[in-house]
Amino acid sequence: MARISPLFLVVLSLGFFFATYNLLTMTIHNRATGTLVVDESDHRLLSDPIIEMPENVRKPKNAKLPFHIALTATDAPYSKWQCRIMYYWYKKKKDLPGSEMGGFTRILHSGSPDNLMEEIPTFVVDPLPAGLDRGYIVLNRPWAFVQWLEKATIEEEYILMAEPDHIFIKPLPNLAHGDYPAAYPFFYIKPVQNEKIIRKFYPEEHGPVTNVDPIGNSPVIIKRELLEKIAPTWMNVSLRMKDDPETDKVFGWVLEMYAYAVASALHGVQHILQKDFMLQPPWDLETAKKFIIHYTYGCDYNLKGELTYGKIGEWRFDKRSYLRGPPPRNLSLPPPGVPESVVTLVKMVNEATANLPRWDTQ
Questions:
Q1: Domain boundary residue among 273, 300, 331?
Q2: Alpha-carbon span 320 to 93, nearest angstrom
Q3: CB 226, CB 145: distance < 8 Å
Q4: The domain containing residue 231 runs over which residues?
Q5: Is 37 in contact with 76 (CB distance < 8 Å)?
């Protein structure tokens, strides 16, 4: 049987999106506006005066709802060393009390197996056709999820979309509630302030722009069946946004995050905004009550322990310093006065690298 090319599938999917766009407009109901909040003491849903949460979405006490952890990755050294640290901490936290963490998959969108296949459970998918990402490699993420969801056997009902630069600080429970996925609210994702652009992809007939949550696709815990519906739309909206010069310029490196938020809204999916889902040093100072460290920002300090963000510090940890290979073992700890979140990050990186074999050769 002849093999269908990835390009044909992308074009076919795009065609389907445009053909059904009006149908989506007619069939997706406008949802109520409001905010879902969470009692951080036990992660119970509360409702604000606008939205009343149906009782049937509450999780029964002591009921375990495991979720599958999935992250997309490339075969570049920069991606590999982050994936190894991430998987190390997943294994350390998975079976501890309070965890509902299930299986794990690294979705490798380089198209070919690499040397981490035996160390980390990996599912190989195709990258976008050459040139389609226009140098924005993150566009491969939704396409990778579309392929994985279609071809892989996934036992868990829920999925956590994660990233290589995530470290599990403590066991993670399932923060989703039925058809309400859980997501981290990013301060720089601002649909309301960018309404003019959002309306290109989320027309007024769908409802208020506040239906578009201030989130990206990660971290998100979501029902598998919901993600199967959202993922193709997410891919198509990402490509359309990249193809629009104004959107591409304004959204920049977070374009694919906006695309996930818009795609979810097009399908009438509302996320519970979980502020304690994740922290991002150096801006978040403590790890208490948080579940994931996201080390996307560089951490620069002088020897007095003062942040020098935007200027290379006398002490620094920045993942981008290690684009061509892994950081060395036993990184120096920050000077006194540096926030606990940064100290914890470096200690966790050091523990992982000390225990992972062949660290300097990967």
A1: 273
A2: 26
A3: no
A4: 67-273
A5: no
**Same domain for 204 and 322?**
no
For residue 4, being part of any structural domain is answered with: no
pLDDT (tens digit per residue) in 285-334: 999 999 999 999 999 999 999 999 999 999 999 999 999 999 999 999 99
If asked whether residues 207 and 289 sit together in one domain, one would say no
Burial zone of 37 (CB within 10 Å; 0-12 exposed, 13-18 middle, 19+ buried): middle
Is there a domain that residue 135 lies in? yes
Euclidean distance between CA atoms 133 and 231, whole angstroms: 17
Q: Cis peptide leading into 203, omega within 30 of 0?
A: no
CA distance 348 to 168: 10
Q: 10 Å Cβ neighbour count for 312?
A: 10
Structural domain tally of the chain? 2
Say what the alpha-carbon torsion angle 253, 258, 260, 266 is, to the nearest 10 degrees.
Answer: -160
Ramachandran region of residue 7, left (φ > 0), alpha (ψ -120 to 50) or beta? alpha
Rounded to whole angstroms, how far apart are CA atoms 246 and 38?
A: 36
Side chain identity, residue 291: F
Residues 255 and 304 in one domain: no
Residues of the chain with pLDDT under 50: 1-35, 37-55
Q: Are residues 295 and 217 in the same domain?
A: no
Tell me, what's the pLDDT at 362? 58
CB hemisphere CA count around 45 (13 angstroms): 25
pLDDT at 291: 98
> Are 17 and 259 spatial neighbours (Cβ–Cβ below 8 Å)?
no
pLDDT in tens, 133-188: 888 899 999 999 999 999 999 999 999 999 999 999 999 999 999 999 999 999 99
Tell me which residue has tokens 């892989």.
152
How much is the pTM? 0.86
Q: Say how far apart CA 145 and CA 143 lie, in whole Å.
A: 5
The answer to the question of residue 249 being in a domain is yes
Distance of CA 69 to the CA centre of its chain: 11
Whether 184 and 97 share a structural domain: yes
Cβ contacts of residue 88 below 8 Å, gap of 6+? 352, 355, 356
